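FW: tagging you since you asked about this chain on Friday. Here's the raw sequence from the shared folder, copied in full. Didn't touch anything.
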Amino acid sequence: MTDNALRLGTRRSKLAMAQSGLVAEAVSRVTGRPVELVEITTYGDVSREALAQIGGTGVFVTALRDALLRGEVDFAVHSLKDLPTSQPEDLALAAVPEREDPRDVIVARDALKFTDLPRGARVGTGSPRRMAQLNAYARAHGLDIETVPIRGNIDTRVGYVREGRLDAVVLAAAGLNRIGRIDEVTDFLSVDTVLPAPGQGALAIECAADNAALVAALGELDDPSTRAAVTAERSLLAALEAGCSAPVGALADLLADGPNVKEMRLRGVVGTTDGSRMVQLSTTGPVPQTHEQATALGRELAAEMLAQGAAGLMGERAL
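HL: got it, structure written out here
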């Protein structure tokens, strides 16, 4: 590699630019080279359709990957939960940095917590996964909410609450953290209430697979625990044959006995968006030491979930 600037492909949104800026600083530290951001518009950024309607899978990713393959950028940063579960052979997932908070959060009027929302409260989210779990929780705890499908960036979504059009919106803690707006959160949703999307809170750094020097340099930013966890979560999603807009939640976490990490627990959930039918299971095993072991953990749990009828709860399965 020469000492000229590395070109980082990023979506144009405020959140994507913030995420990419953090990665750019880290890459500059490990390579000693300046990094310039190259803004790329993706189909998911310009389409006004609901993500579930346009397929969800890859809509924020394809344009960035195309730019990589054409040599217009040297590497790209994605929100890992947006990545399709199959990895193209000519691109390397060079690094998965340490994960941010994976939880979902509520931004509600009058600083309300989720359980304090009034009867008939309108809760905005574009995610069938969030709808399914919030509606299931509401059913189980005697709450009366209406989930309202919305699109848009963080400003747009929070604006619906500020303008009084919605009582609350659901967002990812990681995104609000990265743009310095975590103080607007009125409630952090426990992962026991709402399991996040597979890979939520993690970033993915991709580059051309044949650029061995850059793959090695970016690999310095990889966090093995995060990579093992998100590999298991995404393996579950793939084995369910579900796209990233399907109502699937998953979270892998490490179980420690004092200072010693003993095992990895993987939890998964699939449900109908009205929350009336849910399949929620977990499995625990040794901490994966290889990609294959992490993948096997996800497949094992997916097989159990499919045996419990998960396939019938997902609507259109990814082809």
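FW: The radius of gyration is 19 Å.
HL: agreed, and Confidence is low (pLDDT under 50) at residues 50-57.
FW: great, closing this out.
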